[in-house]
Amino acid sequence: MPGIILVAFDDSEESRRALERAIAEARARKAGLLVLAVFAMPLDPQAAPRDLVTWGDGAPFAGPLEPPPHIQALLDTAAARIEGAEVTAEYAWAPGPPGQLIMDIAKEREADLIVVGADHHQTMFSSQLGTNVAEDVAAHAGREVIVVQ
């Protein structure tokens, strides 16, 4: 049974290289790709209850949620890069903290491999929290991870 390779994609130079590596790995392993675009948020909006003050009752968002236009554009960009690569690909997005979402979705989908680009540029949230998504995923994913420089 073919495996699944999850690749995190945000259209940065690092994630474009990660996508290319994931395509090569999918061909070599005869695996499918799961391209994940994350709408970076410091908290998971689907989780309840929330510990911070929120507007409204603090109930989780009801889904399924449509991707924001810039997230859909990322998925479309990834699809265009994969077109003709002779690999099967699925596309997904999720709002929340990037590192945790990548690991959670990899576990949920039983991905054999996670491919991420190195964090050469920090997001507003990661710089404030002192986190490096690629290092966090590599250290805590519990499965094979390739960090592409």
Question: Can you lay out the helices and strands and say which pair or pack?
Answer:
Layout (H helix, E strand, L loop, with lengths): L3 E5 L4 H17 L2 E9 L28 H14 L6 E8 L1 H11 L4 E5 L6 H6 L3 H8 L3 E5 L1
Parallel strand pairs: 1-2, 1-4, 2-3, 4-5
Helix pairs in contact: 3-5
Radius of gyration in whole Å, from Cα?
Answer: 15 Å
What form results from the Cα inertia axes?
Answer: globular
Round the mean pLDDT to the nearest integer and report it.
84
**First CA to last CA: what distance?**
30 Å
Order of helices and strands: EHEHEHEHHE
Content of β-strand: 15-25%
Widest beta sheet: strand line-up:
3-2-1-4-5
What low-confidence regions span 5 or more consecutive residues with pLDDT below 50?
50-59
- What proportion of the residues is helical, as a percent range? 25-40%
Helices and strands: which structural class?
A: alpha/beta
Q: Profile the largest sheet.
A: 5 strands, parallel
> How many β-strand stretches?
5
Number of helices: 5
